[in-house]
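Quick illustration, no need to memorize.
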Amino acid sequence: ASSGEPEFAKRAQNHKFEGFTQEEEGSWQGPFVFIQAADTQYGMINDWEGRGDGNEWEEEVALTKKAIHAANRMEPRPKFFVVCGDLVHAWPGGKYRSEQERDLKATFTELRSDIPLVCVCGNHDVGNSPTQESILKYRDSWGDDYFSFWVGGVKFLVINSSYFPSNYSDPSTVGELKKEHDDWLDAQLEEAKSSACQHLVIFQHIPWFLTSVEEDNEYFNIDRDVRKTMLAKFKEAGVRTIFCGHYHRNAGAFYGDMEHVITSAVGCQLGKDKSGLRVVKVTEDTVAHQYYDMDSIPQKVEL
């Protein structure tokens, strides 16, 4: 970082996450808590409300700081803080992009150093139809766009949902990168079947579906044929929970006994929810979670 800019550590490298390897975190060590958030999306409120073109993001900064300060105070200490995509609102190469990224990184330097920030890429982060350039720029700025990590015997997979087709996304433009991602994901799912992980959890940005696996394709979900194929793979591999964002509202449903959780935004709301985050409690048998608006986040979480 240049002088005056806080240092941002890219911890997702080589499809792993520094400090959260299987060697260090591969065995169950008792219940724990983590924070799942989505869509900090610096600049969207200003743009959505027609007050500008995304040229101001003070409101998102204030909301993100509320989330961070709540995480910093929480007992027990959250093991990590994951943001499930749309870190900023400006498109790759777009106006305000570098300023929004700079300010988001600066905001997250206020997160306790013993609560790692885990970044998931969203469609605004790499573009609706990603390009090789947009993905490489994301990696340069934030770290890998897909990786696995372990915490306390639980295996987590961060995937790039922009590699899957939707109503507006054509990932064929990044065929080779998509193939690398899909091959990696298949190998990770295969490995999980025999790894004796306590739970298997996925983080991504775009939801597979909103209410039903049979629903039609629309802006907020992934192509139905691909959706059915992938959900069957996840179920076979023993995935317990999938956490997403993108919808700017809370939603969720089950696919068999696999839970699909959609978390509303830290930033701009498109429904009746308030800006907030999800507190996730991991026990030996369950992955339980509750969404809290910024003014209701508990300081003490009972495990």
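The helical segments are 22-25, 44-48, 58-73, 97-108, 123-126, 132-142, 175-193, 224-237.
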